Amino acid sequence: MAWVWAGSAMTAAAVLLLRHAWGLRVRSVPLLGAAWGVLILGLVAGGIGHGAWGVAVASLPMMLCAFGCLAVAGWTAPRDKVRASQRRAHMLPDAGEPSYIGRRLLTFLITVPLALAASLALALAIRLWMSANGGGEANANVTTLFLTPLLWSVLIVLLLLARRRRTQWLMLGVPLLVGGLPILWGTML
Question: From first to last of its 189 residues, what are the pLDDT tens digits of the chain?
Fold first, then answer.
């Protein structure tokens, strides 16, 4: 039960750390990475304590803390005196401005299908490793199904925080290499 309590405390602390990092004037990728790392460690600690039930219990304080942060932000936000604009921010360019449709399309392609492929490659490599080391077929499949959206979400956040395309390509390339090579090696055996 101590693992579940520790995991619960870590997930709640991770939400507070994420809220703090998002409130800074400039992006702090190390702080955001640390917050996501603490969140994952908290969920792992809950899982070590009592399996899926421990993960569910460790998730509850995280969600309550996130709800509290949203409630405080909504309650303390100043009321706008000016009526909200009907135009969505940066959705359409003003008259005479370039649309940057190519840049926007590339951002979409990088963050959706390519990031999904990278996270799936990494999750499948972990599945292959689990199967090879006696983890069991069912456990390996469930782990893959759990890790793919989790890794994809984290990768999307990191990709959208990157300031340059080169950094985004590196962030995509590392999981593809780390995940793709074991998959190729495993299919060759």
Answer: 899 999 999 999 999 999 999 889 998 999 999 999 999 999 999 999 988 888 989 999 999 999 999 999 888 888 777 666 665 655 666 677 777 888 889 999 999 999 999 999 999 999 988 888 888 888 889 999 999 999 999 999 999 999 899 999 999 999 899 888 877 776 654
Cβ atoms of 187 and 128 within 8 Å: the answer is: no
Long-range contacts of 67-74 (CB under 8 A, 24+ apart): 69/15, 69/16, 69/19
- Using only C-alpha atoms, what is the Rg of the chain? 20
Residue whose structure tokens are 């702080």? 31
Task: Confirm if 55 and 6 have CB atoms less than 8 A apart.
Answer: no
CA dist 114 to 87, 101, 102, 176, Å?
A: 30, 18, 16, 9
pTM above 0.70, yes or no: no
Residue 63, token pair as written in the block: 């969600």
CA–CA separation, 178 vs 113, rounded Å? Answer: 18
Q: Which of 133, 142, 128, 132 is nearest to 179 (CA)?
A: 128
CA distance 144 to 164: 30
